[in-house]
Design goal:
- The protein has 2 domains: about 10-315, TIM Barrel (Alpha-Beta Barrel); about 320-364, no CATH class.
- The protein is built from 13 helices and 10 strands.
- About 45% of the residues lie in helices and about 10% in strands.
- With about 375 residues, the protein is α/β, with parallel strands linked by helices.
- Strand 9, helix 9 (about 260-270) and strand 10 (about 280-285) form a beta-alpha-beta unit.
- The longest helix is centred in the first third of the chain and has 20 residues, at about 110-125.
- An 8-stranded parallel sheet has the order 3-2-1-10-9-8-6-4. Strands 5-7 form a two-stranded antiparallel ribbon.
Length: about 375
């Protein structure tokens, strides 16, 4: 039997937020990056996810030497705390030049800006000792279909990815798909789209995907199945675990908060595939409730990590022999009941009388 995976966890500094949303202002005071980094190890996290301007604030107004200096300072801050950078992502959706998208903008000047920002992100990633760059294609889409030629848009995304690969022979590009928000119609809305682009790229071995639970749910898909699809292609580079209460705005709830069984199946897919054995991180992208007090600004992170580890234990202690017997008997009702009771911590012997024949047949 192979050794059990010892999972490594990561989150980004934006996960410790002030609670502002489109309908209200901040409700908590901000913390500095250094203050946030101090909390990682005590919370059980060693990986830090970054946007480029999390590392280098005001990046567009700085000279290359200034960007390098600041990135080196932040990298040293990580080393001093026993932390590592998981990835760096260009924040392409805030700048006025990306109002109409970056890679897919109808303005050539804006497209050039987006590419340049990505290349500078690669430079930052080098200084942060990580080869990984995440592309969340936030505004790569359109509000109305007629405004852009979708075929050309896909070609422009691919062209940009290839230029990034050519710029640095060691960079890895992880595409994080999302079906909507902030755009009505997003290009590359699912992991299937992302993997298709990966195979089209000039070096498919260096292009993969990052799956966020909520993004899959917003596409009407099951996160566990999306993860399984990416794993089957060897393309699941990282995950952003969270939860989502239906097809609403991107809620980034704590992992398992809305659908514990869905969370269980995500953990099961990862555990059974050996995810994490090569050092992959279990990443979180979660928002704390706006009602939370300042003193509990990290509760959602601790809770999500704990839930993941509890579900790992549930996966590892499931009765595989009984599961297989019920599958072979095509008794999915009994399998459903057993799964629910296992999650609830109900002993097998306490199942309802309707389950007894199947359990008796299995020697339980």
């Amino acid at each position: 039997m192979s050794e059990a995976t010892k999972y490594r966890f990561s989150f980004g500094p934006w996960n410790i937020s002030e609670g502002a949303d489109p309908f209200g202002p901040e409700v908590r005071s901000p913390y500095s990056l250094e203050e946030k980094l101090d909390w990682y190890l005590p919370l059980g996290f060693e990986g830090v996810q970054f946007h480029d301007d999390d590392v280098v604030e005001g990046i567009d107004g700085l000279k290359p030497s200034q960007v390098t200096k600041r990135a080196q300072e932040v990298c040293q801050s990580l080393k001093d705390r026993g932390l590592v950078a998981e990835f760096v992502a260009p924040r392409l959706w805030f700048d006025p030049k990306t109002i109409d998208g970056g890679f897919t903008s109808n303005c050539a000047t804006d497209r050039a800006y987006a590419l340049d920002r990505c290349l500078r992100t690669i430079d930052i990633a080098r200084e942060m000792d990580t080869p990984n760059v995440v592309l969340w294609l936030a505004r790569e889409g359109t509000y109305i279909r007629e405004a852009k030629n979708a075929r050309v848009a896909y070609e422009r995304i691919l062209e940009t990815i290839n230029k990034m690969l050519d710029y640095d022979p060691e960079v890895n590009i992880w595409i994080e798909p999302k079906p909507n928000e902030p755009m009505d119609h997003a290009y590359l809305p699912t992991i299937g789209h992302a993997i298709a682009i990966a195979y089209q790229s000039s070096d498919p071995t260096r292009v993969g995907g990052l799956i966020e639970s909520a993004h899959a749910i917003l596409a009407g898909l099951d996160p566990a199945d999306e993860m399984a699809f990416a794993l089957a292609h060897g393309k699941l580079c990282s995950v952003h675990l969270n939860d989502q209460n239906g097809l609403k705005f991107d809620q980034d709830k704590s992992f398992g908060s809305a659908n514990l069984r869905s969370a269980y199946n995500q953990v099961r897919v990862l555990e059974e595939a050996g995810y994490g054995k090569r050092g992959e991180f279990v990443g979180l992208d979660v928002k704390i409730m706006r009602t939370q007090k300042q003193s509990d600004s990290t509760a959602h992170l601790a809770n999500s990590r704990d839930t993941f580890l509890h579900l790992v234990e549930k996966v590892r202690t499931v009765d595989r022999k009984l599961e297989q017997e019920l599958i072979e008997a095509r008794d999915y009702e009994a399998l459903d009941a057993y799964t629910l009771r296992h999650l609830l911590g109900v002993p097998t012997e306490a199942v309802s009388s309707s389950q007894q024949p199947a359990l008796a047949a299995s020697g339980k």
